[in-house]
Every structure is written in structure tokens, then in C-alpha cells.
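Quiz preparation item.
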């Protein structure tokens, strides 16, 4: 493809160099590097192209932007070398946004996923893709729910540490392939169970392909999971019908920070964590028996974005991050105090409160009378479940629950 150069704008070629071996460069990428007199990238990338060009050993966005600002738009062409492919968890996205005064062109490369799958003689179109390199995505849930998962690793998320977590969540027997130094002479691929890999050491920047024959392809698409999916005891639980209405009123977003106060068995906490996959949920509970059930249900659903906080919620929430939405299933007699703390943290926080007593209903109504900036909606949910009695079906009434939703006016 031929490009016309824009006048008075520095040309910046953002080049995906693949896994690293120059032999794997596309012809377009090679030509883009050849026509550039300034090369920017990390030391290992630059080593293969040290042919009299001006080299800058950096992958810091601010430093790349500064180098481009100092370049001569009439004489210079810059190539920024990025590993893998420019569209696959790449630095290219960040760089392009910082070089608004430059004419940026992207050149694709072979991603680590494509190369690794080739080396494993394995297709990758059915793989769930996760990056643990500089991100906190939920690898545990991905492996639990998908038969094939590809993951980038990095920093504290090394292959052995990630496999330790898989073992902790009952997936010690999944098959794991780890690739290190891909495409270089010292390339190494290790295969074993998660338990075996957890005992080995690998470079932080590696890749993993994880195969789970026992994966449960569960997709959370609606509010209100069946009650029987959860570990239960005598601990209070927000039942399916009420939970479905309550969470719909709460409107959790995928990136939300969420409190579940009075979490009980954790049925709401679990559903919120499944919906806020890129966010975080804090479950507050003071009952020791409930805390044990919460831990069991957290492990059962493999929701690593859920933290369980023991103790009085009115005290524990003080030092917590500001929430985007809060579900209150039990307040321990400190409802108004907790609402004041929540709104101090985020005045636009969405709040849903469940209550079975008229006294709590009155307390909520009186609170929001003095906080007129919020609109309070009250829904009384009645549900009855069928019970087989001989040849007949009888409807057994559940406790009616007040579902109260408070939103800031104009939201």
C-alpha cells in the first residue's frame, strides 16, 4: 500500500516486529524500518537493526513523544518498534494517542499468541485471551469457564504464581504450556499440570496456554442465579427472585467498584463480581459462619475480583475505595451512618437497600426525606414458590421484601 506523506508532519511508523526474531518480520514491516532513520524500542529489539541509524533505547511513552518532538519533520522518519502485533495488547495504542501531531502508520506483526499456537501445533481461534501483564484480569474464572485459555504474563503474575492460584481454586490438574524467549535461539516450551508448573521458575515475560477438559462454560447473562448453585446453610440468603430485582435496580457496570453490605452467603456478592468483571466487589460480613460460606462460594465461582471483609461494615468501609454502587442487605443498626460515609466518598453512588421490616423501611424513608438530592423508589416484592404435596402443588409464600433504590436526581 502506498501512502502520501502529509506536509509538515513527522512520519512515525509503529512497527510490530513479532516475537523478536527478525526473520519473522513481514515485508511491509521490514521496509518501514529500512526507510526510517530513527529507531525507538528496547535494547533487544534494536540490536537486530543497528545499521547506522539513530537508535533510542526506550519504551516509555513520554520519552518516545519527546524524541518525536525533537525530530525534523522534513528530514526524519521515525520507527517505533513494538513487540508482537500492533493490535494485540500493544504499546501502539498508547503511543498513537500521544503523537497527535504526527502522521502515524501501523504495521502488523506476528503476535505471541499466533506464534505460540504454531509451535504447539494448536489452533487458537477457540481460545479465551487474557493478559496478566500489567493488568488484573480474572484468569481463574477464564480457566474455570473455558477449555482453552491463552495468557500473557508479567511482573508479579509469573507463570508459577498463576499456577499456584489455579491449584488453590481446585484446578491443579489442568494442562499448562509455558513459552519463554519465543522465536529466539534460547526459546523454551514447558508442559505440565498446574501443580507441576507452580514449582518451576520462568521469566516474568512469558506466555501460557492452559487446557481445562473440565471447564464449565457458564455464561452469566441474567440477574438472579438459581439458589441451588450456591453453598448454603442457616445463614440468611437473598433469594433468586428478590436478588434478580435488586441487582437490576442496582445496574452494576463491568468496571464498577461495588460494596455488598451484610453479604450473608454471598449470593449477591458473587453475582456482582461476575457482572463487574473489570471492577471489584467488597463483601462485608460480621457473622463467622457466613464468612466461611462466603469463602466457599468465592472459590466455587472462581471470582478473584471479590474481597471478603470481616467485621462491622460501618467501621470497615471508612478506609475502602469510593464505590460506584452499593447493595445493602443488612446494616446491623448502622444504616444512616453507613449511608453518610458512602455519600461522602461518592455523592453519585447508586444504592439499593433490602428490608423485611417496616422499621427499616421507615428509617430509609426518613433518611432520604432529609437528603432531597436523591430520588427514592420503593418496590415491595412478593414471591411464592410451588411445593409438591401429594398429588397437589401448593404455593408457599416467601417473606415480602422492600427493595429501595436511591439515585441522585438527574442521573
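Solution:
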Amino acid at each position: 500500500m502506498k501512502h502520501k506523506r502529509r506536509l509538515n508532519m513527522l512520519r512515525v511508523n509503529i512497527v510490530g516486529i513479532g516475537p523478536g526474531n527478525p526473520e519473522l518480520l513481514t515485508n511491509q514491516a521490514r521496509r518501514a524500518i529500512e526507510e526510517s532513520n530513527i529507531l525507538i524500542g528496547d535494547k533487544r529489539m534494536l540490536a537486530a537493526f543497528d545499521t547506522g541509524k539513530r537508535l533510542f533505547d526506550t519504551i516509555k511513552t513520554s520519552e518516545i513523544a519527546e524524541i518525536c518532538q525533537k525530530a525534523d519533520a522534513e528530514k526524519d522518519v521515525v520507527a517505533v518498534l513494538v513487540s508482537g502485533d500492533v493490535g494485540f495488547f500493544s504499546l501502539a495504542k498508547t503511543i498513537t494517542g500521544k503523537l497527535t501531531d504526527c502522521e502515524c502508520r501501523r504495521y502488523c506483526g506476528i503476535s505471541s499468541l499466533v506464534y505460540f499456537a504454531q509451535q504447539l501445533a494448536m489452533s487458537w481461534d477457540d481460545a479465551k485471551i487474557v493478559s496478566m501483564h500489567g493488568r488484573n484480569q480474572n484468569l481463574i474464572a477464564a480457566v474455570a469457564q473455558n477449555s482453552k485459555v491463552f495468557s500473557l504474563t508479567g511482573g508479579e503474575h509469573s507463570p508459577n504464581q498463576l499456577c499456584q492460584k489455579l491449584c488453590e481454586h481446585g484446578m491443579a490438574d489442568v494442562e499448562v504450556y509455558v513459552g519463554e524467549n519465543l522465536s529466539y535461539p534460547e526459546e523454551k516450551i514447558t508442559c505440565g499440570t498446574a501443580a507441576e508448573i507452580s514449582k518451576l521458575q520462568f521469566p516474568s515475560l512469558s506466555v501460557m496456554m492452559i487446557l481445562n477438559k473440565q471447564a464449565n462454560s457458564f455464561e452469566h447473562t441474567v440477574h438472579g442465579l438459581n439458589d441451588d448453585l450456591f453453598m448454603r446453610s442457616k445463614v440468611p440468603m437473598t433469594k433468586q427472585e428478590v436478588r434478580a430485582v435488586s441487582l437490576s435496580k442496582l445496574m452494576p457496570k463491568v468496571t464498577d467498584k461495588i460494596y455488598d453490605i451484610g453479604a450473608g452467603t454471598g449470593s449477591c456478592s458473587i453475582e456482582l463480581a461476575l457482572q463487574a468483571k473489570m471492577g471489584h466487589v467488597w463483601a462485608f460480613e460480621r457473622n463467622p459462619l457466613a464468612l466461611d460460606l462466603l469463602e466457599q462460594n468465592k472459590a466455587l465461582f472462581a471470582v478473584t475480583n471479590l474481597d471478603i471483609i470481616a467485621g462491622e461494615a460501618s467501621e470497615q468501609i471508612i478506609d475502602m475505595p469510593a464505590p460506584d454502587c452499593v447493595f445493602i442487605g443488612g446494616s446491623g443498626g448502622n444504616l444512616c451512618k453507613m449511608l453518610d460515609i458512602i455519600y461522602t466518598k461518592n455523592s453519585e453512588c447508586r444504592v439499593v437497600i433490602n428490608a423485611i421490616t417496616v422499621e427499616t423501611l421507615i428509617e430509609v424513608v426518613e433518611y432520604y426525606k432529609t437528603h432531597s438530592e436523591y430520588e427514592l423508589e420503593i418496590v415491595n416484592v412478593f414471591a411464592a414458590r410451588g411445593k409438591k404435596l401429594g398429588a397437589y402443588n401448593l404455593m408457599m409464600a416467601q417473606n415480602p421484601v422492600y427493595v429501595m433504590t436511591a439515585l441522585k436526581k438527574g442521573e
